[in-house]
Specification:
The complex is a heterodimer of chains A (about 70) and B (about 240).
Chain A (H helix, E strand, L loop, with lengths): L2 E3 L10 H4 L5 E3 L4 E3 L15 H5 L6 E3 L3
Antiparallel strand pairs in A: 1-4, 2-3
Chain B lengths: L9 H13 L5 H11 L6 H5 L3 H14 L8 H12 L24 E8 L4 E2 L8 E8 L3 E8 L9 H8 L5 E4 L4 H9 L3 E4 L4 E2 H13 L4 H7 L8 H5 L3
Parallel strand pairs in B: 1-5, 5-6
Antiparallel strand pairs in B: 1-3, 2-7, 3-4
Helix pairs in contact in B: 1-5, 2-4
Classes of the chains: A alpha+beta (about 70), B alpha/beta (about 240).
Chain lengths: ~70, ~240
């Protein structure tokens, strides 16, 4: 139950970082990264994942296949 | 306006048209309002010849007080417009220093296509919604080629100016502008074009040289993907690991 950022799509705009309610998004060495152990896909915090809402690129943030 | 103003002579209309073209985004109608704010109707050549830079500035200020969007022009642009109004510019001059188009790169990948909003020469000095033209460049790690110049004339007829301009450059990957509005930027991003704002403007090629240096080094994955080169960081699994 977590999301990940597709590295080839991320344009490093940083829009997702401040909206994450669990503070799981940080700028990594190459692009932004989601901490999979703290990301809960905004369960209980919002109707939809906030980062996907603000991300300007389609299919850049996807659910991690379990 | 209730009474329609008397028609302008051909020469005057041409002068006003050229002057409006020197002030991108203003348009003939608003320029006429500026002029008529400073001089009484009917316009004639003597009145136009007496116009000063101060007249244009004050007229513009007056206009801005009554409009929602604020227009600002450089002194150079205002002076060019004034020259046109004075009838000093030879008419051919408005198509001044259009840069020379170079043959495109022969390879099919390994470059990015960049649109640059420009009003003059090879300068990056345009506002997305108001620039006179887009310069289209191919930028690879070795070359920078100016492959096309796309005039933005005709947007007045378009229903949505920003959509029209976005469609003009939809084959490009990157867009360099001196300024761009929020909704327009959203449209550009929607079309899959990455906007880059350079608030100070300057020589287009100087900015593209910086892009080229990025391409020569380690381009970010999304740029590497556009160029069709493998990026060392492609596996989502490695990036999804908690840090």
């Amino acid at each position: 139950m977590a999301l990940y950022i597709v590295a080839e799509e991320c344009i490093s705009c940083g829009d997702c970082e401040p909206v994450c309610p669990t503070d799981s998004i940080k700028e990594g060495k190459v692009v932004f990264e989601i901490n999979t152990s703290s990301c809960n896909e905004c369960e209980g915090q919002a109707d939809a994942p906030q980062c996907i809402d603000v991300c300007p690129v389609d299919n850049c943030i996807l659910p991690l296949a379990s | 306006m209730s009474a329609s103003p008397p028609p302008l002579s051909r020469e005057l209309a041409l002068r006003v048209g050229l002057a409006a073209k020197a002030l991108p985004g203003l348009g003939v109608q608003r320029l006429l309002r500026i002029l008529l704010h400073r001089v009484s109707e009917p316009l004639n050549e003597t009145k136009l010849a007496q116009l000063s830079l101060k007249d244009l500035r004050q007229g513009l200020q007056h206009l801005n007080e009554h409009e929602l969007d604020t227009l600002e022009f450089s002194k150079d642009a205002l002076l060019r417009a004034l020259q046109c109004l004075h009838g000093e510019t030879p008419h051919a001059d408005i198509h001044e220093d259009l840069p020379v188009i170079e043959p495109p790169l022969t390879q099919s990948s390994g470059f990015v296509r960049v649109a640059v909003a420009s009003n003059q020469g090879e300068l990056l000095n345009g506002h997305f919604g108001a620039c006179l033209r887009f310069l289209i460049y191919q930028v690879s790690s070795q070359n920078v080629r100016l492959v096309a110049i796309r005039d933005t004339a005709g947007y007045e007829q378009a229903e949505d100016r920003n959509a029209y301009r976005t469609q003009l450059i939809q084959d490009c990957h990157l867009l360099y502008v001196q300024s761009i509005g929020g909704p327009a930027a959203a449209k550009v991003v929607r079309a899959g074009i990455h906007p880059v704002k350079v608030p100070l403007g300057g020589e287009a090629r100087a900015e593209l040289l910086r892009l080229q240096q990025v391409l020569q080094g380690h381009p970010p994955p999304w740029l590497a993907k556009i160029m069709g080169i493998a990026s060392p960081h492609t596996s989502p699994a490695t990036l999804a690991q908690p840090a």
